[in-house]
Design a protein that fits this description.
single chain; 72 residues; alpha/beta; 38% helix
């Protein structure tokens, strides 16, 4: 079975980091889309400024290219 693929915007700290870690514990692949890298190295980091449409498009294209799907 393929793992669930989760994109967390703001996943590098505080609530976003905690939520991302819960997804990791459940066996998901977690992509932290933020302007700074998360403290948890188990998360894949994609530098993303969500105020820039081109950054968000590149993030989504990269996720689909790498994993073939996005669940959350």
């Amino acid at each position: 079975m393929k793992p669930r693929v989760v994109v967390m915007t703001g996943g590098s700290q505080n609530i976003g980091l905690a939520i991302g870690q819960r997804f990791l514990e459940a066996g998901a692949v977690v992509i932290a889309a933020d302007i700074s890298a998360p403290a948890d190295e188990r998360m894949e980091f994609v530098r993303t400024d969500i105020t820039r449409e081109s950054d968000v498009e590149a993030l989504m294209e990269g996720v689909v290219r790498s994993y073939g799907h996005l669940d959350v």
